[in-house]
Amino acid sequence: MSEVKEKIIALQKYLDSRIIGQKELVKKLIITLLADGHALLEGAPGLAKTKAIKTLSECIQAQYNRIQFTPDLLPSDITGSDIYVAERGDFEFRKGPIFANMVLADEINRAPAKVQSALLEAMAERQVSVGGKQYRLPDLFLVLATQNPIEQEGTYNLPEAQLDRFLMYIKIDQPGADVERKILKLVRSEQLGVKEQDEAWKEFSKTVGKITIEDVISARREVLSMHVSESLEEYLVQLIVATRQPEKYDASLKSQILYGASPRATIALDKCAKINAWLDGRDFVTPEDIHAVIYDVLRHRIILSFEAQAEGITADDIITTLLKLVPLP
Questions:
Q1: What pLDDT, in 10s, does the model give residues 38-74?
Q2: Distance between CA atoms of residues 44 and 263, nearest Å
Q3: Which domains are delineated in the chain?
Q4: How far apart are the C-alpha atoms of 272 and 275, rounded to whole Å?
Q5: Which of 73, 125, 172, 235 has its CA 20 to 30 A from that of 201?
Q6: Whole-prediction pTM value?
Q7: Is residue 84 exposed (0-12), middle (13-18) or buried (19+ Cβ within 10 Å)?
Q8: Contact status, residue 124 vs residue 165, Cβ threshold 8 Å
């Protein structure tokens, strides 16, 4: 195991100790980090979405900013703006909170279209445009957005083009009783002196020290060397094509899918499957690696027809059906 891989595995272990019962969330956040992508997290309040993102940022020598999205938010509240400096008689650009390595976009679906367009440019182009000038964002730039599925009043649907810029769309469920008890014990220990937390942090710090931006970039290079066989590559491509031409496998799916996944989905699925294999200690990708990440990669990229939505069919249902229909290599 390489030194950088040891650090990433130690990071995953530490996050698991702090974000109780959310091993899949932790793993997928690390996949997003190593894939140089962005993630959208959906779950009810109190499921440690914000804590997971903040804890991840604390373990990396990187700048972290949080933006609370509200209906009255302006694009300049995110990007920054030109400020007139009277002493110089000129304008000076003051950077907004988007200029960070890790940005938490909390309750992203509460902001209107103008704000989303500013965020979309940052996510897609890694730059912001203000006053006719472009300003580059850091090399390590990660947007982790959250949204609450319960309350829909005062929210806006995210544009499909922006959804497509998210590498993964991660859904979080409520914990079971056993996990709930562990969460309760962890919170109590934190309130009484953080002894257990200190021990976990000491072990992580002793093993890793601190993960740097250079470590993350090195890990990204390692992932690129993961082997994908030609037959598995063809399987991956056919899964994506099946979302656009489902009638090849089942004629009834044609009326359920309005638009299939874009080529970004192919690239995302390839990256995420490689990283999943890398984290699991293999140097090659298997069909199980594809299956482990395909729901998070595709659920926001398949646009359902009105008929399918009326029948209560979800994108996850479509993905499950396609996994059964597309033959394994």
A1: 999 998 777 778 888 888 888 888 899 999 999 999 9
A2: 31
A3: 21-214 (3.40.50.300), 226-325 (1.10.8.80)
A4: 5
A5: 172
A6: 0.91
A7: exposed
A8: yes
